[in-house]
## 1
Amino acid sequence: MDRDALHLAPLLDQLVNYERSRPDRRLWDLTTMRGLVEAPWSPEPPRPAVQIGGSKGKGTTAALLAALCRAAGRRPGLYTSPHLHSLRERIRVDGADIALHDLEPLLRTLLARATGPRTPTFFEAMTWAALAHFAEQRVDLAIYEVGLGGRHDATSALPVDAGIVTHIELEHTDVLGDTIAQIAGEKAPVIRPGGLGFTATHGEALAVVRAHAAAVGARLLVAGEHFGLADARWAADGLHGRLWLPDGRELPVHLPDARTHEATALVLAAAAFTQLLPGAPLVLDPAPRPDLPCRFEVHVAPDGVPWVLDGAHTEQSLGLLAAELQRRWPGQSVAVLFASATGKRWREGLSRLLPIADRFVVTELSGTTSEDPALLAAHLAAAGARCERAADVEAGLAALRRHPGPRVVTGSFYLAAAARALLGHAPR
């Protein structure tokens, strides 16, 4: 538990934390969160506001949108999850984490005044605290990242002007459904009645998002149809191209040190920015580079070997990780430290890493429910991979240090964050 959480433990211990217990079915709805938002003692939610959902890329899209706001001289409020080292990271205004002396009284107020049939959950409490802090700070744009799904997520009780659905893939199937159409149906409601929607989905998922937008009378803007990136070129200094926007403009774009998956996130963020903050300058050449810890975060060890920390935990995100590794270090095999929270499609995810890795080390997570490392190791051995088990993250890092090529820590943000702290890159 981080120091801030320890300080707030008397308050946090009153809240059910489904992020850590990981129930195998949905145990929440919007009743409690709506009651908090509509309570007479709750501040007026800030506008404009946007909610960002999807299976992959929502955190990156949110961070890029906030960075574009700051580059334009506007103050963004950014609410994301999970956190890596301190729960204060979840609530940021103008690039700064909420201070402990601001968060604590908000949580005390919430617990003292909430009078619904049940106590708010941890995520509901943090969501309300984000709304209240953004209102106090008079942000120019409130950005809310969905925690899980969309239809029943606490952020869906907050009033917003636009919704973004990034990508859809099979994930959280025990809660969201076991088909692309079902999962898209759970995530599409971030696009609100009469509102504005943006999406980079395709195929069956796009058909579901289109149908939802039509049913609720929302205007839907689709990547590749209403906005997009043309003439994309990858160079040593990052991504270059031309961004065409819903308002008809075409602008040169340069995203320094870009990862492959960030192109779509930047396109979505820029399109939403122009619609939510019309008239604000859109800075794209170069575009601001947000801090994205544990999202293909690269560090070079004293022995000159790169470490890559990435919280990827779905089949698509692990596939994108593998592609980026090969783009940066073509032909080199990597060593992977892997762990998975329960309920993830880790077999499918590992299938994307098998072709590029010549060694795996598996371990278990702390702070949340974890898949048995013995099960992971048995699966990898059956696939013909070299694999060993490590008692904990520290032992896993020690095992990876024996590998001469790139070393990768992935499978969970919990794992990547723990490795980041042990490698000395966590804030002190």
Note: The two ends are 14 Å apart (CA to CA).
## 2
Amino acid sequence: KYFDLENVKTVIDVGAGAGFPSIPLLIYKPDLCLTMMDAINKRLTFLDTAIHALGLEAQLIHSRAEDSGQDKNYREMFDLATARAVAPMNVLAEYCLPFVKVGGYFVALKGSGGNDELKEAKNAIKILGGKVEEVFDYELPTGDGRTLILIRKVSETPEKYPRNKGQMKKKKL
């Protein structure tokens, strides 16, 4: 509804967790070349079982985003990066934007405080090569508020990003 997947071929879901939004994306568009990344192998075992039970295909990567974001096999290789319930927006941008090709998108699924997080993350997004394109506030059927943040990748992410977790905590972007 808020993002057109027509020209999207490659997607990475950072911190895939229980498979949202990656599994619904695959159900909607099964021809996606989807990569699910998570630091906890137990989650990936569940996701492997779930996608095969649904007759879907995806690549599963057991890794931390800050490690794979420096790997040339994944860095700036995706049309779309997405994440839900992973980290505050400034950290999330540092995790996700290094995976996105210039011209691609990072779509963050945030809770009702998404706009406040975005205000604190604007500098980080700019440093990492992103530009906020649109923000959508909406409600789930339960009445819970959500924010969808669309960030277009307008320039390459500097090589030093993503930094390790300790550096991120010590000096926020």
Note: The chain has a mean pLDDT of 93.
## 3
Amino acid sequence: MEREQFEHLHALLDQEDHATARQVIEQGLLDAQGMEPSRRLYKEAELYGFLCDVGDESGNEDDLIRSVAFMEANESALEPLLRRSSYYYNLANAKSSLAKIRMRNKPGIRAPYDSEDTLHEAISLYWRAHIEADGDELQDEIAINLSNALTCAGRYVEAIQFLDLVLRRSPDFPQALVSRAEALRMLPVISNGGLSASLIAQIYHGFRSAIDTGTLSPSRLQYCEVQMQRALKELRGSGFGLPDLEKEVRETRTEYLALSEQRRFSVDHFLTLNEHAIYCPCSAAKWDHLQIGSSHLHLVGAVVPRLELLLNRIKSEYALARWMYFKSTTDAEEIVLDAKFSELFEGESLESATELLRTSYRQCYGILDKLAEGICQLYGVQTKNVYFESFWERKEVRERLAQVKNFHLNALHSIASDLNSEKGELRRFKKWRNKMEHGLFILIDREQPRMDPLGLLDDGSLVCVDLEEFKRKALHLLQLTRAA
């Protein structure tokens, strides 16, 4: 696309002149008809990308449907012209925008199966784009849009995590600042955490920092100013003034540094079962203290106490899984395996750290399955051999849960859809776990000699994975389990 046209369209979007932008795009598509095929396709891809933005910002479903149709019809042809991350990202944007429009047209809390098509397709595409974009210039934008799609599915814990990661890399990214502030605003609505002064302060800081970038569109600027003033009013109602915010930041840092090394690791890597720690690393983040009831509440009946019993078991197992991961990355040499191994020069890592890592990974699936048991207990579903990522599709489960409109149930169903071993975008996670339990799953340490003179790794029944890649996936699985 010519630079002048490119900048003109960006300016029209910044001015929110969607009608003129749409006219420029339509004219551009007509002009592209006379071009050489590959050049025409590239220009069309750029123009449909802009049309997707116009459709998203103006709420025009037809713009988005046309963008999706173009990208899906030309996937193979676009492969030499676009990076896979760009293709998945643009298609995900269009499907995510479609899902948001359709959800706005039918407001209210939905049953878990009501938004499993367009929204889940968008999340799956964002996962693909996120994996493909590791380290490239689209990485932050993909993470922000993935987080926004996760919030639509009720997955606020993961959404805030991705936004925090973006802001660690790019502290002044306006979209990330606004999205994080919005997610924090919703957090007490969907949790038991309450609206603390620390939370309000972070909401205020997010909107204020976004305004200070000087890059917001007129409507976004106005919106952020209103939200910033709202947060400031709430802060003053809690007895806080602006000078207190700086003191709060200093005290939070001091309290964070006073946490144990292991707890700081858990906070830094998004592994705490603590609602306050989702957004603040102060002394209140010291313990995992999620619970269903409360000490001053008189409970009648057996359901909540039974679920608290299950939650105690889950918290204990998660704390151990997290400890094993922490040890595997820090001081696992303290744990000695009193065993000698045959030297086969195949490069497998056979160390205490690796065994802790593998066991941490496997334990996550036991925790997730217990969560599924808890859902069945809560809603009176009678079924056997419950597996978190697949039990949703059983007839008796679907019939019962399709009638339930619950925000958290939607989030759990979305996580399970990602992990589904048949069609989930993260299906490899369960396949690895099954191979660890029932076959040979080999972690290859690239620092060890890997000659494999006996051809052992050529056996198709083995699964061989790079150790560093597995560490990243094990951390991701721990984070998903924490969110669930």
Note: The longest strand covers residues 441-444.
## 4
Amino acid sequence: PEGLLQVRGTKTIDVDKNKTVLTLSGYVRPIDVGARDVIRSESVADAQISYSAKGSLGKPKNGIISKILGLFWP
């Protein structure tokens, strides 16, 4: 009703069988949308950026001492 557009975009990156998903969402004024449908980042209101990763890149690596302690100490 206020003349705002809701935008949302995702980018999936696959590196060594590990998928990372970046998501950006927010609101822009129609006047801020360029001729090539490009929006400058400072024009996005209430911007929210989320990051999620699956696979070994999304998990911390444990050293040998951590693995040994993990066997005895939950």
Note: The CA atoms of residues 32 and 40 lie 8 Å apart.
